[in-house]
Amino acid sequence: MQTSILTKYREARLPLYTIYPTVPEFSAAIGAEAYAEWLRDLPADDPVSLYLHVPFCRSMCWYCGFPTTITRRDAPIVNYLTVLRDEIRLVSEQAPQVLPVSDVHFGGGTPTLIGPAEFLALMEFLRRRFAFRKTATVAVEIDPRTFTAEMAEALGAAGVNRASLGVQSFDPIVQKAINRVQSEAQTAAAVEMLRRHGVSRINFDLIFGLPDQSVQSCVETATAAVAMRPNRLAVFGYKHIPSLIKNQRLIEEAALPDSTARAEQAAAVADTLVAAGYREIGLDHFALPDDELELAQKTGRLRRNSLGYSADTYKTLIGFGASAIGRVGGGYVQNEVTRDSYTRHIAAGRLATSKGYRLTDEDRVRAAIIERLMCDLEADVPAICAAHGFDPIRFLDSAEGLAMLAEDGIVDIENGFIRVRQEHRFVLRAVAAAFDAFLDRVAP
Description:
Blueprint: H1 2-8, H2 32-40, E1 48-54, E2 56-57, E3 69-70, H3 75-94, E4 100-108, H4 116-129, E5 131-142, H5 149-158, E6 162-168, H6 172-178, H7 184-196, E7 201-208, H8 215-227, E8 232-237, H9 259-275, E9 279-281, E10 285-287, H10 292-298, E11 303-305, E12 308-310, E13 316-320, E14 325-328, E15 331-335, H11 339-347, E16 353-358, H12 361-376, E17 378-380, H13 381-388, H14 392-398, H15 401-407, E18 411-414, E19 417-420, H16 428-433
């Protein structure tokens, strides 16, 4: 039954719905002028989140879909940091006052390829340009294969308090098939170094659906991961789109598991993590009972944004770096994707916005419905519509896929209140897609 539903609703092809509308709807009609206007209009007291994209790695993971540059030298990274600081200055000067910051996230690529001294200097520069709250979360993505004791010390000194470690799989056969050989010992050493220097909140990323992966290897990876007791785990399904992502062409398609195997792997990982004491968060996250995500989920405050699930309620995300996405004021913006183009814009004293999207009132309603579904597995459509001044009938009637979802027993609908049945949470994105005005309706 699970496999037929996954096939019927094309689950693997649907957006992740970390934002709505999704990136394919972005247009060059929204550029630097719109972004500057939105920055100038930001409220003085509303905290913002910062995202800094560092697009460098030492080697290419064949599954990876993020824009990154492979470099064995440090010079390109140092040069990029100079441009990044210039962008931070340009953006902060657009705001009418120093903006308060509640959350900072360094992503990539591999942000910890930045040297320890350079990272400390960058954090000091950010603190001069923004007003960090005492409780601000500062998170960094880490590749344990290149992580050093010196960098761990620098992260602690810089005030980093959360680290997200890429694990994906501990199976050596799978690791070889994706060009990411990383031992359990390397990961455990990185965790120990981080905790020793006060970076106590640890996240792991795992992936199912990889080449040569089996249910047994997924369970063994999950078991090894929970032995290190990370606070959170994100468990993603590999999305194979070699027509768009060139490095994925190095993966042998015949070695990829089919939809039945993918579903079995996802279920096995979830069962392993829940049995180890982790709580399911939304679609693809797991957290310990005392983690902020679990507490936010319990109280209905869980949010979903371009960085995934969050306990923060901030409305503004400012993105820095090549390809970075932000949500500011009236909509979304994205920087130039290529590093060269991004650098040229910043060097000329211009914001590097290449495209974006201006939100309409209807977009905001649909985004709110989709977010509640993705976070709570339920949405009170009439209440959400009333809060935005809209008639819920319009949205319920246009969600053509809802009737089919109800008929298949995936959702229960009563007076516009939609609840996804727990056993069908794996097809949650198909429920969200029913409210996506830009997505072709899924055929029966």
